[in-house]
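Exam revision sheet. Question 4 asks you to relate a sequence to its structure. Input first:
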Amino acid sequence: MLQFENVQKYYGSFLAMNIGALSIDKGVWWLQGENGSGKTTVLKMIAGLHPFSGNILLDNLYNLKKQRQQFIRRVNYAEAEPLYPPFLTAKDLVELYCYTKEGNIKEAIVYYNN
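Answer key, structure tokens:
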């Protein structure tokens, strides 16, 4: 479960987002809205890439601000069309992901080789 508690996002002095209380159960969810409505901002806040006030909690165990490392290890965010340095191979990216998320590189490499 993902919980938002008094989450506010400002751009300068402009209040762009104000989420008083919101709980999102586990599952697959569709985030839909007009351009500029805050979809990417919400996802980047959850991923810890945008500063905000308030709290975001995961599974009632991890607070993004208080247990940042534990929270971030359980959350992934990727741009729709990420730009990686041209010298990195797909294997390099899988290894980096496993290293940063404490994944099992042997399982990932087996999958990668299939």
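Marking note for examiners. The two ends are 33 Å apart (CA to CA).
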